[in-house]
Design goal:
The complex is a heterodimer of chains A (172) and B (644). By secondary structure, chain A is an alpha+beta fold. Chain A has 2 domains: 62 residues, Arc Repressor Mutant, subunit A (Orthogonal Bundle), CATH 1.10.10; 88 residues, Glutaredoxin (3-Layer(aba) Sandwich), CATH 3.40.30.10. Chain B has 644 residues and is an alpha/beta fold. Chain B folds into 3 domains: 109 residues, Roll (Ubiquitin-like (UB roll)); 121 residues, Alpha-Beta Plaits (2-Layer Sandwich); 374 residues, Fe-only Hydrogenase (Larger Subunit), Chain L, domain 3 (3-Layer(aba) Sandwich). Chain B contains 21 helices and 17 strands. In chain B, β3 and β4 form a beta hairpin. In chain B, α10 crosses α12 and α10 crosses α16. The radius of gyration of chain B is 27 Å and the shape is globular. Classes of the chains: A alpha+beta (172), B alpha/beta (644). At the A-B interface, α3 and α4 of A face β7 of B.
Chain lengths: 172, 644
């Protein structure tokens, strides 16, 4: 049977809502799960969430627009967030930032063309004693050096394409 | 109880410095919650029920605390901080509107610290408020402006924007938004989400990038806005306003070739005095007629005439539906029938309950019926080319502006109603013409559509349409005088501001079928012994309650006829009425409307002689006949709530 993307998204969110309860207070957990699963909370997803929780779409939009970790626009598979707060800044975040931009070929706030990476700033991730620090999705990397940037990104790249295939074979 | 108290102290997560003194709860038996608490404000003592806010307690004592984000119709927000006061034992200043008194409290409302803080708050609000007061619709009726004056703002301490940050949203026929003037008090948000439960506006973004926006920041015309304009009535600044066609109306008046006709709805006349400094509750119906002629309108008619016509059309439609359902056993008939007078409600049901559109009466609203009659019957009668006629409608409503621009409202071959004016806009036109409305002589409406009945007048209040319909139904079906059932024909159960009203009317006997309806039903025998069940809801939040009840098969699903009004209080609380609004103001306007009804000699729609005449001369097939279907009935668009 042909299932459109929208229908699949709707069923997906419906399952989440059933699991977490169709109440207003399930809003953020549902949105977080949609974000991790689909790398974005689309216009349609917001309306479905609103419909299921019996609130207004604009309220969902309000919440999505408030939190930096929830996004209406599509993000890359890996979101790299470099801390820009004062401790990391003094520990040399500038060089790391330059290396990230060089390596990925995008500026902060942008995604790579292949949709694999998004580069963004973060405000203090609580690693002030181990700066410069960055986040790759939910994983924290501390005391990052410009040389280390390549390794971190390479590890991410290895989950795609031929590398992923090799890994699969290794495991088998 | 004692254990409970201890637990509350233990789990308080507030820093010690910000914790209040240990709370002395009233022991059980002495009253508990609801007990009286002593409060001392500016050295004056009072006792208030536990939980009363400082603001309400001060009001009780006659002490004024300035507010901005607070509104009597809305829940507490406490965001603007204009109402800060000093509370003894509290480290910081507290917002009076959001501070519940739960223990003996001492408050000072105008110490140096308070005055300074308020001045700073106003300065900060002004540092984000772009726009020229002279060129603002709310000049002289702006809460921010009054606050600035009250707190002696003589310079902009924190600067003042020199250029616009946002583009104006002029997409809607009804409501225009200029977010540059917005001070983020969130009154519109609370109006839209809590009061009306439509949910168009919400604060979006964070920190200095916060703004009030629609879903995905779309223009208002593309979202589920029902154009009720309640947000306009509650906006403290000029950020929200109605789409004002006065320039076009003046141009039509000044054009000698145009025959400009105005119809005036019942609600504006009960409120327009407020724009001229009168207390709410003074009807200026006949002064307004004079003023309209002085402004240059060629004819001044009463919308009440088509309100009476609506009763006959909508009532006949109901009878036909009941006849089909009960006698012909047609299961496809949609019941209960919903009223269709309120364009806000109509757009609401189009968006949120499109599956129930067959239940909505196909009769147009009185405004649109009037437009269609003017450009056909009236034009023929007076031999005026309908293309030279400009019909203006004075309405208490911003949604009427959208309604008259609906593409289906062209049944006369022209735009049935050209412009919708709100009460506020007409007040502006009258002032522009140099007229002091309350002091000018009175004059009557023009013939032929000047004769109206009391039933038409009460359309302006919640429950009015139903009361008018019942007056007619009782007389036409039961064949007795309404006065025999209800003193002075005042059907009290339909009046008042209860969110949802419900009544049952027994039909113990039936009279003869009147001449007008003989073609449609042979006799009333099938209604003998029946019970007519009716409901009334005002404000879309209550409408939602009713719709959910109907969906769930509750009590209201057994109704035969339900009146819905989009605005709280009905038309008299409409989005085009003078600002401000509050429950007291709406009650005063309702009183003015019911007083006017009591003064009419003819108080039932079917007794209106002009209505009888129009069915004899023009709509010869009677109510719901072919021609009336063409001119006086319409169809609806299922819109749904999903935005692509």
């Amino acid at each position: 049977m042909l299932v459109t993307e929208r229908e699949r998204l709707r069923d997906d969110i419906q399952a989440m809502a059933d699991r977490m309860g169709r109440k207003r207070d399930a809003l953020i957990p549902i949105l977080q799960e949609v974000q991790t699963k689909h790398q974005q909370i689309s216009d349609y997803a917001m309306q479905v969430v609103a419909d299921l929780l019996d609130i207004h779409p604009v309220e969902v939009y309000s919440v999505v627009s408030f939190y930096s970790f929830l996004d209406n626009k599509p993000k890359g598979r890996f979101v790299v967030r470099l801390c820009r707060t004062i401790s990391c800044d003094m520990a040399g975040k500038e060089a790391v930032a330059r290396q990230l931009m060089n390596d990925l070929g995008v500026c902060f706030g942008e995604s790579t063309k292949d949709g694999k990476f998004t580069l963004d700033w973060a405000n203090c991730i609580g690693m002030c004693d181990q700066g410069p620090a960055l986040l790759v999705n939910e994983q924290v990397h501390t005391k990052v050096t410009p040389e280390g940037v390549h390794e971190i990104l390479e590890a991410c790249r290895k989950t795609f394409g031929v590398y992923a295939q090799e890994k699969k074979e290794e495991r088998a | 109880m004692a254990d409970n108290k201890k637990n509350i102290e233990d789990v308080s997560r507030a820093p010690v410095s910000q914790r209040g003194p240990a709370m002395e709860r009233v022991a059980e038996g002495e009253g508990g919650i609801g007990a009286q608490v002593a409060v001392n404000i500016d050295g004056r003592d009072a006792k208030v029920p536990m939980g009363t806010t400082i603001l309400d307690a001060a009001k009780k004592l006659g002490i004024r605390i300035p507010t901005l984000c607070h509104h009597p119709d809305l829940c507490v927000a406490g965001v603007c901080r204009v109402c800060v006061v000093e509370v003894e034992n509290q480290r910081t200043l507290q917002a009076a509107c959001a501070y519940p008194i739960t223990q003996p409290t001492k408050v000072k409302t105008h110490t140096r610290k308070v005055r300074q803080a308020r001045r700073h708050v106003v300065d900060l609000l002004l540092s984000q408020h772009y726009g020229d007061c002279y060129a603002c619709t709310r000049n002289n009726n702006c809460e921010l402006q009054s606050l600035a004056k009250e707190y002696g703002v003589d310079f902009f301490r924190f600067g003042h924007p020199t250029e616009a940050r946002y583009e104006k949203d002029l997409s809607s026929h009804s409501v225009l938004r200029d977010m540059n003037k917005c001070v983020l008090c969130r009154r519109c948000v609370r109006t839209c989400i809590d009061l009306q439960e439509v949910g168009v506006l919400e604060a979006v973004g964070r920190s200095c990038e916060t703004k009030i926006a629609t879903f995905l920041d779309k223009p208002l015309a593309e979202v589920v806005c029902i154009n009720c304009g309640q947000c306009i009535n509650r906006c403290p600044t000029g950020a929200l306003r109605a789409n004002d066609p006065t320039d076009e109306v003046w141009a039509a008046i000044d054009d000698p070739k145009k025959h400009v006709v105005i119809q005036t709805a019942p609600a504006p006349r009960a409120a327009i005095g407020e724009c001229f400094g009168l207390e709410p509750g003074h009807a200026l119906t006949f002064e307004m007629n004079t003023a309209l002629r002085m402004c240059g309108f060629d004819k001044v008619f009463d919308t009440n005439f088509t309100a009476d016509l609506t009763i006959l059309e909508e009532g006949t439609e109901l009878i036909l539906r009941l006849y089909k359902a009960l006698v012909q056993k047609d299961r496809s008939v949609a019941l209960p029938q919903f009223t269709s007078c309120s364009p806000g409600w109509v757009k609401y049901i189009e968006h949120f309950y499109p599956e129930y559109l067959p239940n909505v009466s196909s009769a147009k609203s009185p405004q649109q019926m009037f437009g269609a009659i003017i450009k056909t019957y009236y034009a023929q009668m007076h031999k005026i080319d309908p293309k030279d006629i400009v019909t203006v409608a004075l309405m208490p409503c911003s949604a009427k502006k959208f309604e008259c621009n609906r593409p289906e409202m062209m049944d006369s071959g022209y735009k049935d109603v050209d412009y919708g004016l709100t009460t506020r806009e007409l007040a502006k036109m009258i002032s522009e013409a140099g007229i002091d409305l309350p002091t000018i002589p009175k004059s009557d409406f023009d013939d032929p559509f000047g004769s109206a009945t009391g039933s038409g007048v009460i359309f302006g209040a919640s429950g009015g349409v139903m009361e008018a319909a019942l007056r007619t139904v009782i007389e036409l079906v039961v064949g007795i005088k309404v006065e025999d059932l209800y003193a002075h024909a005042d059907i009290i159960p339909m009046r008042g501001f209860d969110g949802v009203k419900y009544a049952e009317i027994n039909i113990p006997k039936v009279g003869p079928v009147p001449e007008l309806l003989k073609k449609l039903v042979p006799s009333w025998d099938w209604l003998k012994g029946a019970t007519l069940k009716v409901g009334v809801a005002h404000g879309t939040a209550n409408a939602k309650r009713v719709m959910e009840d109907i969906k769930a098969g509750g009590k209201l699903s057994e109704c035969h006829f339900i009146e819905f009004m989009g605005c709280p209080g009905g038309c008299l609380g409409g989005g085009g009425q003078p600002i401000p609004t509050s429950p007291e103001i709406r009650a005063a306007r309702a009183k003015a409307i019911y007083d006017e009804d009591a003064h009419y000699e003819i108080r039932k729609s079917h007794e209106n002689p002009v209505v009888a005449k129009i069915y004899k001369e023009f709509l010869t097939e009677g109510p719901c006949g072919h021609l009336s279907h063409k001119l006086l009935h319409t169809h609806y668009t299922p819109r749904g709530k999903y935005i692509v």
